[in-house]
Amino acid sequence: MDWPNHHDAWREWRRALSGARMHHGWILAGKSGLGKREFAHAAARELVAEDGINQPAGNHPDILHLTHLPKDEKEEKKRDDGKPYQVKRNISVGQIRDMQRRLNTRPTLGARRAIIIDPADDMEPSASNALLKSLEEPPQGTFFMLITHRPSRLLPTIRSRCRLLRFPTLSEGDLSRLLDQHAGSASAQARDAAIRAAEGSLGAALRFVEQDMGPIAALIMRLLTEGDANFQVRGELGKAIGPRADRSRVQAILELAQALVAGEARQDGTAARRGRLIEVHSELVTLAAQAPTYNFDNSLLAMEIGTLLSSASAASDHANG
């Protein structure tokens, strides 16, 4: 896939790759859904390739990808069977130490190996501290690529030892063209809602389209603009979410609500309402962080989301004024 927001990153990466001394640590920073993982694997292949050495088309022995492991043995079996599976919340210190043990041996095919940590901002604290030792004294021929959606969550000592590649968000025009390629059968309502809410992230836009977020986006905007004095819209939101919505759908709805609240805050000129919208956005972020670990009843969750949104409505401001 040709990502229009990768051109500057490729230019900087290839300039470094062709230089006399390639830096051993790189941070790939930007919102989720901007193709950073795809860039990391393509860049890693360029890094480890050597003239005269055949490179495998599939998994490469000198490219190690550390990411979230399955949540438990049951989820591990699902992964092995090629089914969707739930993952652990963090990248553990055990994963980092296993990787470090592999660094005691030489690369398999050539003189270089690449370690991709994805996303690095999900490393538990002990894992970050363990990784820091490898960044301070990197083994010969080993290069680290840390994919991060929130670089501020990385240790300052890790950030200081890596070069930064930033990945900008996509324009609405780019998002529209990419959705044509990857979600051409989606309705116009779903596509428009996805583009408006995705805030420049193709990954978010595709999730919104896949989950058919158009009707939910319309309900969220009704709550934000009209309020919900008789609880009717909150009831409609509960029905639209569905009683058996899985975790991915719930997370997509919370992401959509955050994005639409943020967009409303940027456009609203009233200081008091803008402040309330910012508060609601913060509360939605907290709710999204809690949702994976708590057994929320979906009807209660819809009520909580709807109450937060309606509390920031223009109608609520007029009623309280």
List its salient traits.
321 residues; alpha/beta; Rossmann fold; 2 domains; 5-stranded parallel β-sheet; 5 strands; DNA polymerase III subunit; DNA_Rep/Repair_Clamp_Loader
Characterise this structure.
The chain is an alpha/beta fold and 321 residues long. The chain has 2 domains: 7-166, P-loop containing nucleotide triphosphate hydrolases (Rossmann fold); 211-320. Helices cover 54% and strands 8% of the residues. The protein contains 15 helices and 5 strands. The protein has helices at 7-17, 36-48, 73-80, 93-102, 125-136, 156-159, 172-182, 188-198, 202-210, 214-226, 232-241, 247-267, 271-290, 298-311, 314-320, and strands at 25-29, 63-66, 113-117, 142-148, 163-166. Strands 2-3-4-1-5 form a 5-stranded parallel sheet, sandwiched between helices. Helix 8 (188-198) packs antiparallel against helix 9. The chain is elongated, with a radius of gyration of 22 Å. The mean pLDDT is 90.
Give the structural class.
alpha/beta
CATH fold annotation of the largest domain = Rossmann fold
Residue runs with pLDDT of under 50 for 5 or more positions: none
How many structural domains are formed by the residues?
2
The CATH architecture designation of the largest domain is 3-Layer(aba) Sandwich
Which percent band covers the strand fraction? 5-15%
- Helices and strands, in order, run as HEHEHHEHEHEHHHHHHHHH
Report how far the terminal alpha carbons are from each other.
Answer: 52 Å
CATH class category of the largest domain: Alpha Beta
InterPro entries: DNA_Rep/Repair_Clamp_Loader, P-loop_NTPase
Protein name: DNA polymerase III subunit
GO biological process, one term: DNA-templated DNA replication
Pfam families: DNA_pol3_delta2 (PF13177)
